[in-house]
Amino acid sequence: MVKTVSIVKNFGLTASRKLHVVVLTGAGISIDSGVPIFRGRGSMGEIPEARRLASKAGPPWNTRETWEFYEWRRRLVSQCKPNAAHYTMVEMERYFENFHLITQNVDGLHIRAGSKGVLELHGNMWRGRCTRCGASVDLPETPLRSIPPYCECGNPLRPSVVQFGEPIDPNVLSKAFAASRRAELFFLIGTSGVVSPAAQMPLMALQNGAKVIEINPDPTVLTRYMTLSLRGKAAEVVPRFWSELHACKTPHAKQASLWQSRE
């Protein structure tokens, strides 16, 4: 069912610069840039070459086979560009005095768009990490000069990406949880809400009184808890939403922004 709702009138949303705003993004924001998702319809699992390479990658994650899989992914992502939703995050970061961008994506598109201080929960495929000395090494070019790439200490690097079953960097996770608890306005963009601990963050925000807005093509397991849930592609809905919200800088703004949402 389609409803027309007034965000200002019904939800009291404003764009005060002093609002504490948190955005959590998932694979859905990068799909519009051409980055395939990891699972489900249209995912890398449907690409034979990706399945073949992924089947050979594994612990200790600094092997030639692992990097051959990641180089396949890196070459694909290198041909993708940040979309309007990524650039909207940059605008929001510049506008709000207290803004935190948290992402589950490892493609680095938020950084390429110009976002600063991104909290990358699952790491970044454009960096390598040394399992011997702990060094983090930028690897911005593809193809790599050697596979695997090596640290200055002589040890092969592993992709600086959190693999299934591995813990998230506690420093990054702590900052993401703290930001979520302090949020007054929380955006959940392009994520299914089934992967923890990220799925806990919008619920933390809600429990602490924040308004939480979900933007996703389809309903998720978190939809019923949301203050507002908007249907559509991130690259289309996010810029439009921000344009309307930005026009409402005070609770007394006369403009009643109209939106289409599906339940």
Compute the number of strand runs. 11
The SSE string, one letter per element, is: EHEHHHHEHEEEEHEHEEHE
Query: Quick one: biggest sheet?
Result: 6 strands, parallel
- The CATH class of the largest domain, by name, is Alpha Beta
Amino- and carboxy-terminal Cα gap: 6 Å
The secondary-structure class comes to alpha/beta
Low-confidence residue ranges: 1-6, 250-263
CATH H-level superfamily of the largest domain: TPP-binding domain
Quick synopsis:
The chain is 32% helix and 21% strand. With 263 residues, it is of the alpha/beta class.
What does this protein look like?
This protein has 263 residues and is an alpha/beta fold. It folds into two domains: 168 residues, TPP-binding domain (Rossmann fold, 3-Layer(aba) Sandwich), CATH 3.40.50; 71 residues, SIR2/SIRT2 'Small Domain' (2-Layer Sandwich), CATH 3.30.1600. Helices cover 32% and strands 21% of the residues. The chain is built from nine helices and eleven strands. The strands form three sheets. A six-stranded parallel β-sheet has the order 4-3-2-8-9-10, with helices on both faces. Helix 3 runs antiparallel to helix 4 and helix 7 packs parallel to helix 8. The protein is globular, with a radius of gyration of 19 Å. The protein starts with a strand and ends with a strand. The relative contact order is 0.20. The N terminus and C terminus are likely disordered.
